[in-house]
């Protein structure tokens, strides 16, 4: 049976992206962390970055509950 979940659809879409592993620079993420955190606060939403090549979550900023 074919999985039509949102997660499966996004994974299928992202799996079609081709890249050359030698062109990947994982150190670049560090310079964007503060901006990603601010974007999460301003938009009141969670933000995540997933490394497709490593198949792992590189960054996650959950939605912070209002105090």
What is the terminal-to-terminal distance?
44 Å
Structural class: alpha+beta
Shape: flat
Radius of gyration: 15 Å
> What kind of oligomer do you see?
single chain
**β-sheet strand percentage:** 15-25%
> Care to count the β-strands?
2
Order of helices and strands: HHEE
Q: Low-confidence parts, pLDDT < 50 over ≥5 residues? A: none
Average pLDDT score: 85
Number of helices, counting only DSSP H or I runs of 4 residues or more: 2
> Strand order of the main beta sheet, please?
1-2
Largest beta-sheet characterization = 2 strands, antiparallel
What is the share of helical residues?
Answer: 25-40%
Write structural notes for this entry.
The chain has 67 residues and is α+β, with helices and mostly antiparallel strands. The chain has a domain at 22-67. It is 31% helix and 16% strand. The protein is built from two helices and two strands, in the order ααββ. The protein has helices at 6-15, 33-43; strands at residues 47-51, 56-61. The protein has a two-stranded antiparallel sheet with strand order 1-2. The longest helix is centred in the middle third of the chain and has 11 residues, at 33-43. It is flat, with a radius of gyration of 15 Å. It starts with 5 loop residues before the first helix and ends in a 6-residue tail after the last strand. The model has no long low-confidence stretch (mean pLDDT 85).
């Amino acid at each position: 049976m074919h999985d039509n979940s949102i997660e499966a659809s996004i994974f299928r879409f992202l799996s079609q992206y081709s890249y050359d592993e030698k062109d990947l620079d994982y150190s670049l993420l560090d310079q964007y962390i503060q901006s990603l955190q601010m974007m999460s606060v301003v938009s009141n939403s969670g933000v995540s970055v997933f490394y497709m090549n490593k198949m792992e979550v590189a960054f996650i900023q959950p939605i912070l509950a209002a105090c």
